Amino acid sequence: MTTISKKFTKDSEIKAFDINHRNTLKFNISRYHKAVNRGKKQFNDLEFARNRASNIKHKIINDLENYLTEFESNFTKRGGKIIWAEDSNEAIKEIIKILKKHNTKNVVKSKSMTTEEIELNHSLEKNKIESLETDLGEYIVQLNNQKPYHIVTPAMHLSKEDIAKLFNEKFKTPENSSPEEITAFVRQLLREKFTEADVGITGANFLISDIGGVGLTENEGNGVLSMSFPKIHIAITGIEKLIPSLEDLNLFWPLLSTHGTGQNITVYNSIITGPKQENEIDGPEEMYVVLLDNNRTNLLSKEKQRRALSCIRCGACLNNCPVYKNIGGHAYSTTYSGPIGSVITPYLNGMNDYKHLSFASSLCGRCTENCPVKIPLHQLLLYNRNASVKESKTKFSEKLMMFAWKKVMLNRFLMDIVGGNTKNIAIKMFFKKIWGPRRKLPKIQPKSFRKLWKERRK
Questions:
Q1: Where are the domains of the chain?
Q2: Using CA atoms, how far apart are residues 317 and 108, in angstroms rounded to an integer?
Q3: Which residues contact 133 (CB under 8 A, 6 or more apart)?
Q4: Which residue has the higher pLDDT, 390 or 140?
């Protein structure tokens, strides 16, 4: 067991038995479910919409190279600049180069999981560049010196009392400040930062191939301000975020908002097709799009698991996962948690260190049932498990145990060769630690069903 998997087991146990944490998470996710159930009513035929979105993304993933080339061609026609980054180090190197070229001192960032993936804030801090998260949830976890807890709602693990206490400690605001009062305080604080910033950095929800556009969706307006006030705009995104056409947004934006937050449509939806043009008065003077691979092509090479690249980062699989709802986001120690994170992280960060995530699932299938683009997540977790065995990422003791288990389970004589008491002793010897300290081991009866059947049918 690697150090990372041991940490996962330890952190999961702590969080699973933390009643306050469980109550906060249960409350926040219950509000999500109510909102999503309302939001889904806007669709006359939700299954048809999901099938259509799934087919479009499936088409994109299987022809990714051509769509990327089309996006690059259309984006650069309007003066935009593309940076192809093979990994996080290359992405950071190119971004720092741009920032130093423009003598950047202050950066404002809108919410972006891709920037979390490459740990951009850490690199900017090392280069003495102030980087400020402007999404309220991201700003809260940044103040708290934490990573985002959830891919859509970064501060889901904190109650309003926790947040009021944090702001009291950092800014001496009243200890009983309401969410509205804290929001107003942050709005005033950030407005000054937007006007002072040298560079704005955003993610991208969608890359629109036929117009070379970046689709950005958010609820607070911080994304719009991050790209419009500063003279330089950098959008950082994974290479899989493509959709073929501008017309496809009328499908993907409602699906994303409904499954992400329960809204019919997100409050602010922007399409950016490059820097400010001659006849325009608003927008950045220069715009860059960083197209990040970071082992996505490794995932793309897998015939089955590549379906996970269709993900539109709505977070529905996390909110419906019984494992996530018990252990929360930080226990995963990854950028992408929950079922989607368990599928993609072994390929993005290494199967050897992260194969355990594919086993941290009940395989109940709720993630698949609620995915707006119909990714068969619970099946992909099984493919991952199979891949980890084929790639020899399992211990010899595990292989020996499974070999012996298979031999016995396929042979009735071997199953019955010893009595129930002997089997109970063997179970205590080999399975007690794995079974855990809080559950009683199953007790095997002295006689098997086969023996009882034979006795009764003499």
A1: 1-42+304-394, 44-294, 404-456
A2: 29
A3: 109, 111, 121, 139, 141, 142
A4: 140
Segment 267-278 mean pLDDT: 95
Instruction: Kindly list the distances between the CA atom of residue 227 and the CA atoms of 96, 141, 234, 395, in Å, as whole numbers in the listed order.
Output: 18, 22, 8, 49
Residue 66 vs residues 69, 209, 243, 293: alpha-carbon distances, Å: 5, 10, 12, 15
Alpha-carbon distance of 105 to 70, in angstroms, equals 34
pLDDT for 266 equals 95
Q: With residue 84 as reference, give the H or E element that holds it.
A: strand 81-85
Cα separation of 419 and 175, whole Å? Answer: 65
Beta bridge partners of 237: 291
Neighbours of 415 (CB within 10 A): 13
Q: How many C-beta neighbours within 10 Å does residue 452 have? A: 12
Q: Which residue has the tokens 């065995």?
A: 389
Where do we find the tokens 């950005």? 216
H helix runs in 1-119, sequence order: 3-16, 19-39, 46-62, 64-77, 88-101, 113-117
pTM over 0.85: yes
Q: Hey, what are 62's tokens?
A: 């299987």
Q: Rounded CA gap, 349 and 155, in Å?
A: 24
Indicate if the pLDDT at residue 372 is higher than 70.
yes
Tell me the percentage of the chain whose pLDDT exceeds 70.
99
Nearest-CA neighbor of 217 among 285, 265, 147? Answer: 265
> In whole angstroms, what is the distance from residue 76 CA to residue 276 CA?
13
Fold (topology level) of 44-294: Rossmann fold (3.40.50)
CA distance 148 to 24: 16
Q: Report which of residues 435 and 51 the model is more confident about.
A: 51
pLDDT tens-digit readout, 400-410: 877 887 888 88
Which pLDDT tens digit goes with each residue over 227-248? 999 999 999 999 999 999 999 9
For residue 17, count other CB atoms closer than 10 A to its CB: 11
